[in-house]
Amino acid sequence: MGLAAVFPRPGSVRPLTMLRKLAVAATAFAVGLVPTLQASAQSRSVPIVRDAEIEALVSDYATPILKAAGLGSRGIRIVLVNNNSFNAFVDGRRIFINTGTLMQAETPNEVIGVIAHESGHLAGAHQQRLREQLRRAQTMAVIGMLLGMGATAAGAAAGNSSVAGAGGGLALGGTEMAMRNLLSYQRGEEMTADRSAITYLERTGQSAKGMLTTFERFANALSLTGTRADPYRISHPMPRERIANLETLARQSRYFDKKDPEALQLRHDMMRAKIAAYTGAGGGAMRLFRNNPRGIAARYGDAISTYLNGSPKAALAKIDALIQEQPKNPYFQEMRGEILLKANDPADAAKAFERAVALDPKKSSLIRMSYGRALMLTGSKGNMPAAVRELKAGIARDPEFPAGYGYLAQAYGQMGDIAEAELATADMHYYSGNIQEARIFATRAQQKLKRGSPEWIRAQDIINSKKPRS
Predict the structure, then answer these.
(1) Could you give the CA distance from residue 272 to residue 329 in angstroms, rounded to a whole number?
(2) pTM for the structure as a whole
(3) 446 contacts 460 by C-beta, under 8 angstroms
(4) Is 133 inside any structural domain?
């Protein structure tokens, strides 16, 4: 969704170079004002955000939509990107959503609309089809260039400058036509994804109003920039065009005026407050909720900001007040644990994380690992077996999270189990993409492990690996 891939003015980039950039863009469909080819680059090296509370909420947004799109059993993963712009994109079986999207969207329905659109791309296999179109476009471009080069050579040989010039124009024209055909195809796919999103929202009994709000945001942002985009040289339809195409269909739904449940809206607001506090975007949570400064969301953001600004005692008083209001909120307990760790009180932090684990309906791997980490940081040898147990339980649910292996290595180190500590360190480097360091630690671990044991085999797998995991 959104305005994406606004390409440079004619002449500023050679057409074949632009077609190569489109080849990169073909791996992702983006939403928002970030160019598609930038979004695609992000899909290979994105600054990922991990947070149990936000992941749980976005999962609740996505689950019914993915089911309605027939994607419920395909292992689609939602990935949070640390970027303040309003954007989302798909790549493979993943939907990437910027934290800026989550914070700027004032209602859950707006985010759900974005997820519905991206689900439309996945359900329609648009990535695979776009790659096929790209291959055709590249063929057209190459043919056009060969014909142009032939005409140029013939003109030069005959001493006819006009024929040579026409050959150059033919070469560029073929590439330009290929690019425009590809962009036209992608605009069609975007409109298809929009219509699919409307269908998914209807099937799940939700309003499409959030989608229209998003397109209005893009239209206003485009108007403020004063940008004049050639509608034939962009990969997405213009925002006003999309509104015109969807508004009638959206308003026909009996769910159009349906509002998000109050409890869901509150969770959404608390998510926005957390993102604002951690990123400093929008002047912080208190400014974001200046119309309701005593609301739970504003005070939650204030407690987090206080913690981040180095005042754990004051932050603890604020989070405890929130826990009094919502004693069964696992994320308040999780935040209490983080504050206590900063206050150098890992024993009480472990108790807070333990309560968070017990209260967490999603059984988040992140909270479980935080509990294990707090136990490890107590330094008590009696706590180390429990620390290892909790860390391994979290890693079992989230096996590609590097930090978990780092904590596990520390716990094993305190227990004096150097072989396991080095193997965990190898895994930490492996999942961080540092393959050379991973091999070094795996080799060291293997020398201390029993030959043929599961741990020895894991070390051998790392030693034999050629590329880091994505």
Answers:
(1) 17
(2) 0.79
(3) yes
(4) yes
State the average pLDDT over residues 306-333. 96
For residue 129, report the phi and psi dihedrals to the nearest 5 degrees. Answer: -65, -35
Low-confidence winner among 91-100, 159-168, 206-215, 337-346 (lowest mean pLDDT): 159-168
Residues of the domain holding 181 = 15-251
In order of 125, 177, 449, the CA distances from 392 in angstroms are 36, 55, 18
pLDDT at residue 112 tops 80? yes
CA distance 398 to 372: 14
pLDDT level of residue 26 (50, 70, 90 thresholds): very low
Specify the number of domains making up the chain. Answer: 1
Residue-averaged pLDDT of the chain: 80
The size of the chain, in residues, is 470
pLDDT higher than threshold 50 for residue 174: no
How many other CB atoms are found less than 10 A from the CB of residue 106? 16
Residues with Cβ within 8 Å of 80's Cβ and at least 6 positions away in sequence, in order, are 48, 49, 50, 51, 54, 55, 58, 96, 97, 98, 99, 102
In 10 A of CB 248, how many CB atoms? 8
Using alpha carbons only, give the angle 359, 363, 369 rounded to the nearest 5 degrees.
100
Residue 95 CA from chain centroid, whole number = 6
Q: Strand 29-32 and strand 87-91: pairing?
A: antiparallel
